[in-house]
Design brief:
By secondary structure, this protein is of the alpha+beta class. It has two helices and five strands; from the N terminus they run H-E-E-E-H-E-E.
Length: about 120
């Protein structure tokens, strides 16, 4: 019984698992077509977080696997922008074995919105 009292807290502590993997750091990210020759950009958000996640409940996934581009789209939608600079992408998971698992991508960075220039008529 004494061994069980010492062993049980250890088992409970290691049964909560989690991990973060740094996927990459990017200067410029977008999932949209951007015309840079006829536009200017305005920063609309700093350190905006976008996520795409999936949950497993008793081994059954609730959604398709997470995707980086959906996490980026989430961040762009939150800030109302077109592209992201100084972005970092991470892949994370947290699990309680057999009962619950969460797997997700996070994208964090500065969001910019393109505004179209008005052409100036030359005389």
């Amino acid at each position: 019984m004494r061994v069980l009292k010492l062993f049980l807290p250890f088992v409970m502590m290691i049964s909560l698992l989690g991990c973060t993997t740094h996927v990459g750091k990017f200067s410029f990210l977008s999932t949209k077509d951007i015309q840079t020759d006829t536009s200017t950009a305005e920063k609309v958000g700093t350190n905006v977080l976008g996520e795409d996640a999936i949950w497993f409940i008793i081994i059954n996934p609730t959604l398709p696997y997470p995707q980086m581009d959906k996490a980026l789209d989430d961040a762009l939608k939150k800030a109302g922008g077109d592209f992201m600079t100084n972005a970092t992408i991470t892949y994370k998971f947290f699990m309680i074995p057999i009962l619950y698992t969460r797997v997700w991508y996070e994208v964090v960075g500065d969001v910019w919105k393109m505004s179209h220039k008005v052409p100036v008529a030359k005389h």
